[in-house]
Amino acid sequence: MNPLLEQFLLEAREFLQGIGEKLMRLEDAPGDPDLINELFRLVHTLKGNTGLFEFPEMTRVLHAAEDLMDAVRHGRVAFTRELADRLLDAMDFVGQLCDGLDTGTPRPAAHAPEAERLAAELRRLHEARAAEPTAAPAPEAAPLEDGWDLAGIPEPARMAAYREAGAEGAFLVLYRPDANCFYQGEDPFFHASRTPGLHWGALEAVQPWGRLEELDAYRSNLAFRILTTAARVELLEHFRYVPDQVVLLPLPALSLVLPVGDPNGGPVYEDFVAEALTFLEGGRLADLAKGARALVELSNPDLWLASALRWLLALLDREPGNAGALRALVTSLRTFRTPVFAPEAEGPEPPAAAEGALPAEVLELLAVQRSILAIQDDTPWRQGRIQAAHATIAACLRAMGRPDGLAAFLAGDAEADPGAPAPEAAAEAPAPKAEPPAEGEARFGRRAEDTPGAPRSLKVDQAKIDRLLNLIGEMVVSKNALPYLAGRAENVYGVRELSREIKAQYAVINRIAEELQDAIMQVCMMPVSAVFQRFPRLVRDTSRKLGKEVNLVLVGEGTEADKNIIEALGDPLIHIIRNSLDHGFETPDVRVKAGKPAAGTLTIRAAQVSDRVVIEIQDDGRGIDPLQIKRKAYENGVIDEATLDRLTDAEAVNLVFAAGLSTAAVVSDLSGRGVGMDVVRAAVARVNGTIHLESELGKGTLLRLSLPLSMAVTNVMIVEADGQVFGVPMDLVVETVRVPRARIRTIKQSLATVLRGRIVALKALGALLGLPQEPRANADDELAVLVVRLGAEPVGLLVDQFHETADVILKPMTGVLAGLPAYAGSALLGDGSVLMILNLKEVL
Amino acid sequence: MGIEYQKKVAVFRDLVGVDEAEGLLEWLQRKPAAGVDLGPCTHLHPANIQVLMAAGVRVVAWPQVPDLRAWLEPALTPVNGK
């Protein structure tokens, strides 16, 4: 899972919980504007977050929820318990999608119908209330009725669809892409032509075409009509990104049976109709087919009659058992009118019900409906219950051919009615209609809390982590006391055995402590990529806005540092990058004139250097003119005249960090308000970081941010000079050697020696620190040289004595001591003494 | 690839992308009597289709790809056209 998604899931859960809480509280205090605003904000943010990923289902549901909350917020819709229920349902659904993503079973497409249903419910609440408080649910959107001209679809296509139509029948899809879809890189035509089960499609104009001169080629004015036999699920899946632009009209297979053609001319069919009816009565379908086939061959294929006969053959082929439909079609041959098929359900004929009685299944269904209606309570979904019952009963009656009998039934006398005609297919009809929603309820009505799947991430208060860090720090220090103890056991008390055992125990504790420390550090560490990942977009957008070409190179994104440090870095870095893009880089033509490649390169490099993270931002732009800076600084009163003369160029360019200095001639919306770099420096300083700038006019600028790794346990080498011990960070140490005094040469005033064929400059640590004592040699007249690497060159430090290495918690100098640049910090040693850690960069 | 504008006919080849629509529109405005040859075309972006539809353009040759032709023929035939 990518980190962004991980983060999203983590946040999404929080939001969902927040939304749930707010909804609960709103139920107690409906109309609290603060709560409603807060709720809207949460839903809005969550929706925005989902936009980062391709979760159209999630976005759709949240979008509907957002719209609804917006309406509530503006008082267009009152907050009710039903509304809260729907919102909670929607949030549970989102939660389930999140769980699915978390457990690595992301098949959100399978949830598309559910998402659509939830979104529709939310929208219905919104629209119904907004339009009129008492209005019935908005009718199914069918704004394109006149667009459903089935007869306009060529007969072969319709016939093919008819033959292939499944249990669901066929679908007519009206797909009206968004007018701006071309700008979003969509190709609706391609999409439409890839519709599964496509039999026929047509292109239409939504608005009549105006004058050609006024046409906007990139504003879509097209609509697609598609006849398909794919299942609804497949279609929803296919159009899952544009569900609001698609209308699905289910077509029962029989509705495709529409003979078309010239009604005039041709032989008289009266005889055939009479004959066909006889065949039908007698069940002699083979004869009927034969007769029809013979007649088709005789007729002009363009005639209405020929078309009807072709349909008759198709019908005989597909559902020879549907006598009613066959009869209707045959009869229509007399009238040349489109046959009217009774709304019969398809499927096997039910066993003929006894005259005068309703089939047992229908009675059962009706009884259930009645008991549902009899429930006397005041739940918010009562209205829906009545509607559901109504729909079920209406379906039963329709199947029995008695669409007007509902009122009579509700009065309770349907059972008593002996004259009810035997339905042809009553039993099967309502059942499949009722099932899908019931099943859906069972599957999705489940509350999110019921599903196991605990979140894998833990959010911990920063204070707790800090406490852990402090504790492990103390542990490291007290662990370091053990070797001293071992030394004392041996030297003071003379128990060698005990000393050895203490040392063995120390080794174990040391290992565990190190691992523990590592583990805790890991908790707080974050790769700098968390900040860096924003930059490609930033650079791209900004440089485009400025009309510059800039390539961004990111190096060392895996470098890790404390979370606090990383987070504190974000804003300063953005500032720096903007500055660099705005002031640093030249426009391509200027660059080409200056002999540089048209596209500039911005390199952002992160690396860990000893106990610090160093981030370098380097551009190859125009660089900073020290003279201009000096003048500006003088004009703005940042420096006085005396300073003006004294400043070196390198110092001058670092004046950009002074408050109130902006070098850009024009203040743009990106940078140049003079609040840039000093804010950056302040932000970096807050996390004990330093910032340094190097610039060469015409060549580019390099900004170096150096930040602590936070609680880095530093491995130091302890050395002695003039009776004092000092720590030197281990990663600077190259080697420790003893050099005979005779081999130390003096070059002018500097000391040097040759180590493995290389000249190494030597400096006495004591002298560097202002200690009076000369380096002491040992009995063999050898001097202890600690070779450290600083920059490219190794430097030898003359010390009196080497001691052991130790892990210490480096505490930065605070208070008055903070002004001593020679020391990086202090640390406690195992015997309780304080070790000063040298900051060799400053000392040398 | 793309559209080849000849003297009186624009020939659509292979895939005609969205970028072509603007040029096509201009060309058709300049030459209202011109025709289009869709024969070698395998797919064209709907932006182009709507330009053709709006212009009521004369189609010299229909696409050889049957599916594409089935879509385009009714839409671009003046009798059925709107």
Q: Could you give the count of β-strands of chain B?
A: 5
Low-confidence stretches of chain B: none
Largest interface, Cβ cutoff 8 Å: A-B, 24 and 29 residues
Structural class of chain B: alpha/beta
Structural class of chain A: alpha+beta
- Report the CATH superfamily of the largest domain in chain A: Histidine kinase-like ATPase, C-terminal domain
**Beta-strand content of chain B:** 25-35%
**Percentage beta strand of chain A:** 15-25%
User: What is the CATH domain class of the largest domain in chain A?
Assistant: Alpha Beta
What labels would you give this structure?
heterodimer; A: 844 residues; 28 helices; 22 strands; B: 28% strand
Question: Mind explaining what this structure looks like?
Answer:
The complex is a heterodimer of chains A (844) and B (82). Chain A is α+β, with helices and mostly antiparallel strands. Chain A folds into seven domains: 3-131, HPT domain (Four Helix Bundle (Hemerythrin (Met), subunit A)), CATH 1.20.120.160; 145-256, no CATH class; 270-335, no CATH class; 360-449, no CATH class; 462-523; 528-708, Heat Shock Protein 90, CATH 3.30.565; 713-843, CheA-289, Domain 4 (OB fold (Dihydrolipoamide Acetyltransferase, E2P), Beta Barrel), CATH 2.40.50. In chain A, the strands form five sheets. Chain A has a six-stranded mixed sheet with strand order 14-18-19-17-16-15. Chain A has a five-stranded mixed sheet with strand order 6-8-9-11-10, covered by helices on one side. Chain A is elongated. In chain A, 32% of the residues are buried. With 82 residues, chain B is α/β, with parallel strands linked by helices. Chain B has one domain. Chain B is 39% helix and 28% strand. Chain B has helices spanning 20-30, 46-55, 66-76, and strands at 2-5, 9-16, 35-37, 41-44, 58-61. In chain B, strands 1, 2, 3, 4 and 5 form a five-stranded mixed sheet that branches. Chain B is globular and about 30 Å long. The N and C termini of chain B lie far apart (29 Å). The interface between A and B is medium-sized, with 24 and 29 residues.
